Amino acid sequence: MADKHIAEGGAPAPARRKRVHPVDEVPPAGKLVALGAQHVVAFYAGAVLVPLLIARAIDLDSEALTMLITADLFTCGIASLLQAVGVWKIGVRLPLLQGITFATLAPVIQIANNHGGGRVGLQTVYGAVIAAGVFTFLIAPFFAKLIRFLPPVVTGTLITIIGVCLIPVGAGDAVSDPATHMHDSANWRWVLYVLGTILLIVLMQRFFRGFMATIAVLLGLVVGTFVAWLFGDASFSSVGEASWLGFTPPFAFGWPRFDIVAIVSLIVVLLVVAVESTGSVFATGEIVGKRIKKEDVAATVRADGLATVIGGSFNSFPYTAFSENVGLVRLTGVKSRWVVACAGVIMIILGVLPKLAKVVESIPAPVLGGAALIMFATVAIVGIQTLTSVDFTDHRNLIIAATSLAVALYVQFSQSSAPTTVIEKSGEQVDVPALPGVDQAMPNLILQIPFSTGITMGAITAILLNLLFFHIGAKGPAVAGGGDITLDEVNTMTKEQFRETFGGVVQNVDWVLDRAWDQKPFEDVHDLRSAFQEAMLTGSDTEQLDLIRAFPDLGAEDEDTGELVAVDHKGLSHLEETEHENVVNLASAYRDHFGFPLVICARETERYDRVLRSGWARMDNSETSEKSFALIEIAKIANYRFDDLVADANPFTSARFSRQPELS
User: pTM to 2 decimals?
Assistant: First the structure.
């Protein structure tokens, strides 16, 4: 057999260039730094808020607070590098920026105050943080096996809850005095800063192209800060007062102390945080187009565990993915994990250069709040996008999503409505949210942990309800969306335009497209749909076989990037690795037996086990019967793709909704 790399003339054929997934692309140095800085700016306010709250609650002195903030930035950078770059089986290698999780607030404060408070109390806190981090690292592969309990209805609901629950955080900044950070929504300038920043980002996204569009958030923050400075609402005086170098050494507050009750408390917290991290990973996977496997979940949790151990050693706290930056990835479309790695390096530098950190800290709260509102809302939209693949005609899915959202908002808003507290920071009065909420009504620390944030309680509720209603793991079919191509546009298309527009409906098989185009003009959408069906049914045996062979194998993935080849197989993207391998083995055996791929409309796949059972049963059929089965499945797939592409493709749905005003 001739070498496949030797061309007909005897010369070696050029080697096939390996595709690089956008996640693994490395932008040029200048762009890399600018995009990384944008992530840091978006992240900064949330990063320093946790140390601020902890310092106030345990009565830390101002010098200790400065040490916490610089240590936080330094270890955030290390944690982000672990997650984005990865080492061995540690780190998911996605654009996930790491920050201190808000879920640790209540237990950390209680542990510190129960063991002397202040610097002394932090010694017991850091002992518990280190021990809980080690535990999290070790249980990562076992936790990853729980991925089958996280179908789209759970992950989509969790991602939506993350975005919705964080919107009040951005709103809190949006109504804060830029100089004092105290709430003052009555001042018209604060409103203009917020709306002006949002408007700038939107206009840049609309009119800028290429690199300038990707740094729209950073530019919006820079311009907004400059305008606030002109009006006297931004001050950089603290920059001059800060020292150039300042590194907080490990165990700066003394050697850690290990208390069993404190350790168990933080282990419970980190188990909940692992669920939140999984939601962020699924959200990011959805955005960048990568299928999340159980190995990815395990790698994520390992990185969280190791980062938490490092955090406890370097005077910081447990880590998780920051949703602000998940939203930024979606907003900018920049999927490279190396951008987040660059952001991690920048944070490490900020952690040892207090003067540079003060520059970022000087961004006025309303300006930062305006950008945060967009990014948090973007996270919620990603969750809603995930939920579009859920069958909400199944009442169980509706109950899971609605109840989880309701419980999350109840817990979140009970805390958001709590009074605020003023603390001293760098000689100024700083207004920060108070801690008491629903969690304080719980009788002990273990019960307070799940009620500490709306995100935590929403995640727990969604998982428990999914177990209750779908304890055998069944999922509903995906739901097709509506397109925007109109019939008038179709009737004016040339043959080449028609091929380019509708090629994806039938795997770019030209004879089907040409026969459908020949039936122009189309009187209505149904006529256009019928043209495709008639074209496929009237093909010769050879043509129909070519059409079948044009479709990918069930569950096929790009060998370089791991992406699913066909969008119709998206319903199979949430399978465990073993389940996915079973699907691939079935498809391979089927192709070997019949000589063409196993074609199944995966959007109508209600149960994974039924796909396997049906596929293996069909192996006993004749080749003629299987060709007929394949054509039926292709017709279903084409119908769904048609619905995704063409406006008002489903006349029954369109008629029902267009008549709603009359009926009401």
Answer: 0.57
